[in-house]
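User: Structure with (S)-3-Hydroxyhexanoyl-CoA, tokens only please.
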Amino acid sequence: MVDARPVGFAVTEGVAVIRIANPPVNALSAPVRAGLSEAIAQASADPAVRAIVIAAEGRTFIAGADISEFGKTPVPPTLPQVIATLDACPKPIVAAIGGAALGGGLEVALACHARVASPNAKLGLPEVKLGLVPGAGGTQRLPRLIGAAQALPLMAEGTAINAAEALRLGILDAMAEGDLLAAARQHVLALAEAGDPLPRLRDRWDRLGPREAFEAAAAAVLKRAADHPAAAACVDCVRAAFEKSFEEALTFERETFLRLMQDERSKALRHVFFAERATAQIPGQPRDTQPRRIEHAAVVGAGTMGGGIAMVFANAGIPVTLIETHQEALGRGLERVAGTYAISVQRGSLAPEERDRRLARIEGRVGLEAAATADVVVEAVFEDLELKREIFGSLDRIAKPGALLASNTSYLDIDAIAQATARPGDVLGMHFFSPANVMKLLEVVRGAATTSEALATAVELGKRLGKVPVVVGSCHGFVGNRMLARRSAQAERLLLEGASPEEVDAALVAFGFRMGPFAMIDLAGLDIGWRTRKATGKTAPVADALCEAGRLGQKAGRGYYDYAGGARQGTPDPAVQQLIERISAQLGIPRRAIGREEITERLIFPMIDEGARILEEGIAARPGDIDVVWLNGYSWPAWRGGPMYYGATLGAAHVAQRLAAYAERSDDESLRPSAALSRLAREGLGFEALARTAA
Ligand code: 3H9
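Assistant:
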């Protein structure tokens, strides 16, 4: 019979092996903590036990505290209590680390007397990414092991390091090339036999290193993460190691951890953690769906986007054929790719040899016939439905059976594209975001006929490419751009009602975005939106007038702002203000001073409203999926959880009521709350109620 307890205990030849088995990642849930405490007590009391090894089943050692327990009433023993038991144990204990030892997992290992790991181990204190500090002694023990100046950046940035690096830093005592458990047993027996006082990190105040070195590291951390409360709290906790006794510093760390746990920013970051993982579950997908093998890719169109997508494949080790209609266009595309890699080499973020390996995986070819051997073809040509249908019609003839046929369209109808082939089941959207080799988001657009297998293949491929794939339904603009269109329309409208571009931008920066909408459009170029508007018969009076005046953004030296002399930071331009005022007058829109609160709400609330409609139509499966789209594709500030999470914290009723008031005040019917949002407001429901309706 399989032992179902989450902590196993077995003694062989004087060594007790305490083995954690809590799939999928051995998180330190309440039963694990209780089991660990009991096992340590049992091993301490058993005269047959000379030494102890803590090990774990599966691919991870321990992924840390159980994040799903956060915010709930703590169930004893708490992790600090378990670690105190470890610390007080009179017998030597070694952690046998196979796979990830993160957060509380590393804290357990640090409370042991030594650490032995397999080469695939990954160690880190990533709590800061959840808006927290390590809360079970990590801020005190790691500095006492490798020095405060070395330990601080690891926890304040939350980066995980590999076993070789951990060995170099002295976090690990030994690396096990072969049998990890055997190596850990050998190590712990040697400690027992030596009979020396057990090495406890709590006593190693001497290893903290010079205070000045720590303060210099602290200044660097605070400069990089000036507005990150958890990073600043890490600094305070490590500083306590110099100023307080070990016990006092542990109490300070615990209080800080519990205080941050209540912080709205940490709650939002925890939501992000689970939302990102939930996107992997595709609604309606049979559990046993097997993705197809992808060994060779083709990208049609060597423009900026196509070249970027080819780089994404090459970066992930997948050979790719970049296809153009003419040699000149192909040459330009390949040059652009080589130029982008050259910049990375210049900056030191890419080794020249690795650049060469990546470039060797990209083969340029003229003519669609070159797509014949590809397992996946990504079309990335101009946004023209007829052109795309023509290409897919040809691909249907050329591509091998079972090849995934994907379009990188940003807003066109996937079904209309799929119908140009006799294999619509293999057709879907793979919408990359610009720059494709940088942005994490991948909208995987499911057509009416797309098969589960094709969908699973695209999602699996997206992960292999290092992207965050989110499955969305087909509609104009899908999830991200459809919501962005609502924000852009209000940004334009706010200008006409009296706000300046810099006031609109400043409001979104204050909200937490890195850039406002106008600075962003200036960077991307105004012509992109202009072309789309022309193709779809839409207008945006201010943006159109700027384009007609040749103000196409940074690349033209002028857009919403002035970039005279090649400046990267724009300055307000009186000519733009005059142009806006002239259009307001022509359209008869009265101008007034508009406060920051109204600007922010009129930019953000219509997006939340659109998100509600997207859920009701089943275009997104869960509110969290929409959040993941905005977090990874549009730099929504992570500590605000995403638009739907933010909307939920305010409540649908509040958002709907404000939108209705703005619609009245501005005489702008597009601000009226949708039927979907109004229903939630009326019935006091959360956004997930809409997702259930759609399922
Ligand atoms: C902490 O430790 C605080 C302490 O300092 C103090 C305490 C007092 N809890 O990522 P995956 C789930 S804070 C609960 O897809 P991978 C995850 O939701 C913690 N659940 O796998 C998913 O569930 P589902 C510090 C967790 O192989 C499943 O496991 N630690 C946790 O790509 C698979 O996850 C961290 O922040 C957890 N801690 O990557 C580490 N971790 O299948 C967080 C995972 O239902 N974890 N789940 O969707 C990770 O970074 C990755 O999960 C890991 C595996 C690298 C371990």
